[in-house]
Amino acid sequence: MAIITMTREMGSLGRDVALGLADRLGLELVQHELVEHIAEKMHMQESSVNRFLEGKSSLLERWGINENDLSLYTTEELLDVATRGNVLIRGWGATYVLREIAHVTCVRICAPVALRARNVMDRMGIADLEVARKEVRRNDAAYARRMQHLFHVDYRDPMLYDMVLNTEHVSVEACIDMIVSMTARPENQPTPASTGRLDHMIKLAHVRSALRRSEITSRPTPSLTIELDPESGELLLSGVADDQAFKDEAERLAREVPGIASVRNELIVVRSVLGP
Q1: What is the pLDDT at residue 61?
Q2: pTM > 0.90: yes or no
Q3: Residue 16 burial (CB < 10 Å; 0-12/13-18/19+)?
Q4: Domains, the chain, ranges and CATH?
Q5: How far are the Cα atoms of 159, 181, 183, 184 from residue 188, in angstroms, in the given order?
């Protein structure tokens, strides 16, 4: 039931670590697969979402992407993948989204820019070291911006990780050995509390996603609060709704989410002073 999350840092040899680790533990390696579902929910082309994530989108494409939606749907997809178990998720901010779940092992594979640039030269056939350095720095900057915009975190913060491994000093094989050892420790095994936390998070994510995808409930409502009682499974909707249609639709959608035992709808309908 191992669940491992890992950063994606260009030239760090993290890809080699991930492939070796997935092979050693028999894990499903998830790297690019999420984009299809995320793009579908955002009604966008996969290529446009990919270019945005890589920091290569045009100004027009950036205007067309709602970062709040991207954060919401990415979180939902990551939680869905985690519920499958026996997975290694590389990138996507998974180390942040899943860090609250005790049996998830969060890992950062890093290395100095100079070493990473040389690795990029070898893999991409780049002859100029400075060109490779610029590509590494550009990739880092794009990833840093993405994590800041989507999740308001600095991916370099060591507090996000259980392990930070520098491949300048630790070989790929040694990295794999240490991560395998970490995942085997008793504190990294699923417990009723940790699996319950994952179940709680995924239900809330499904409710938020359902509300966002509906035309009736997709309007920004800063006061909307969604709470789930982990014991009873009752969902509480509270705050302000613009109209009765919003209140009714929010309750209907919440009731359709698997695992929601009941819904207590305490939304207060307050018509906007700008309305008819």
Answers
A1: 67
A2: no
A3: middle
A4: 3-188 (3.40.50.300), 214-269 (3.30.1340.30)
A5: 17, 10, 6, 7
